Amino acid sequence: MNSMQYLINVPIEDVKQCFSFAEQLYQKKAASLKQFGRKQLIREKNDYIADHVIGKSVEIGFKRFLEINCGISFKVDFDIWEDQLIHDNGNDLATVFFNGESKKFTFKTDIKGTRKSSKWLLVERHKIVNFNKKSMLLDCWTAYLKARLLKITLMDI
Question: What span, in angstroms and rounded, lies between the C-alpha atoms of 74 and 22?
């Protein structure tokens, strides 16, 4: 029987921290106003802040999920970059903590949230294709092996 805990609560204090982060991000124009996937659509302030609050809350929720179910943790990045072109390169899991030990996790992982009814995983082709080799299969296999090293399977998530 599967004993995974799937319902994860994000404490209100963490959501408030996400809101403060999103407001600062908007004030500094440190992230694009364009809607993800629809570059011609510019987000209004409320939509921009809501998107970033949801995004950071999802990162915290996923962190709590990994802590509760896998004994793995990571630092949620609340750094605000002064330039939109300087960022974490979509790597939300640059460092993981496993058994109290800090480990580099070199497979770029960009945590995204979806609606409850969604049952899919967004994989941006440019993040998994090795353009030098044009080998998507090799990169996917490497990702799979790295996930297995952390004892995470797709069936567990």
Answer: 20
